[in-house]
Amino acid sequence: MGPHPAxxxxxxxxxxxxxxxxxxxxxxxxxxPGPNIPNESAPLxxxxxxxxxxxxxxxxxxxxxxxxxxxxxxxxxxDHGLQPGSDLRADEVVLRLTELGLAPVESIAxxxxxxxxPEAAARDARYGAxxxxxxRHGATAVxxxxxxxxxxETVLLGLARGSGIRSLSGMAAVSGRPGAPDRYRRPFLxxxxxxxxxxxxxxxxxxxxxxxxxxxAYTRSRLRHEGLPALEKALGKGVVEAxxxxxxxxxxxxxxxxxxxxxxxxxxxxTAGLLECAKLYALxxxxxxRILRSAAIEAGAPAGSLFARHIxxxxxxITGWRGQGAINLPGRVVAQRQGGRLVIRQG
Length: 347
Ligand SMILES: Nc1ncnc2c1ncn2[C@@H]1O[C@H](COP(=O)(O)OP(=O)(O)OP(=O)(O)O)[C@@H](O)[C@H]1O
Fold this sequence. Notes:
The protein is of the alpha/beta class and 347 residues long. It has helices at residues 5-25, 53-65, 86-99, 118-137, 148-161, 165-168, 193-202, 211-214, 219-235, 239-265, 277-281, 285-298, 308-319; strands spanning 44-48, 72-79, 105-109, 141-143, 174-177, 180-185, 275-276, 326-329, 333-338, 341-346. Helix 2 links the parallel strand 1 (44-48) and strand 2. One of its GO terms (molecular function) is tRNA(Ile)-lysidine synthase activity.
């Protein structure tokens, strides 16, 4: 008898992701077909595990699939220190990952700041710790347990904020940082949360329910427990899948616009590298706003705190009556019109 369908589904998703990682990081003729015993120099794939159902399911599938492809599998859990006893929870996750056969496994305590609100601050601290762990262990990739339901929530949050299509495109299956552009992999992005939960249940994997996920003080939690069920009631069960599809379509459109904006950028800068307002004005708004956004980030504005409304304000310096004055952006960046030029720099 084969594995339970939920277990088969999570393993298949992880196997696909591992194949992609191998293809991206190993010359094709060095991939050995079939089972292989990983040695110490084999590529290492880490799972980022909170101890919740999604990432525990991911860890179990990684532990099962990685050795078959000659890969090493390890795990990292991040202790945000936001609740009493969070260190004990982290120790327990380390134990569970070790029991699954993962090595190396570590828990990292982080200090969560306040920039951008509690959820964004915890996320920034977490990714900082995961990046550091990946580098310390020389890991080829880090797997994250985001599911199709998380993707649908992300799209809805973007819609509610009035964001552009980049935000509506949600999370990418593959993403990273400068220097490691494909470090993060999300094998469960096409899988629903129920499947991950079921896979944990049938494998008797104990899971930890993050109290933040049920805390109505958090926007995402309200959306998960009230917003999405209400939408499904009104519009039918296919809403989550449809929103995830919107994410994919938006991603393709956003990528095309980004390419267009990159190509157009050189043509709107003068010989000193300053942005020329008249040339910006002549561009389609979506392309112009992308150029403004990348200029603001280049000047030091943190991408995560730079919202559509900020860029619209800068855009009005070019298109509106109020072409004078200075616009303050996050990261102490200031945008100002100087004659026919737009200057975006540290204030
Ligand atoms: N404390 C943590 N330590 C390590 N990785 C984490 C931690 N919190 C989240 N992650 C990673 O980010 C993913 C998404 O987390 P998030 O809390 O947004 O979603 P979730 O659906 O509650 O996931 P989970 O059921 O795994 O907790 C997780 O699946 C995991 O891979």
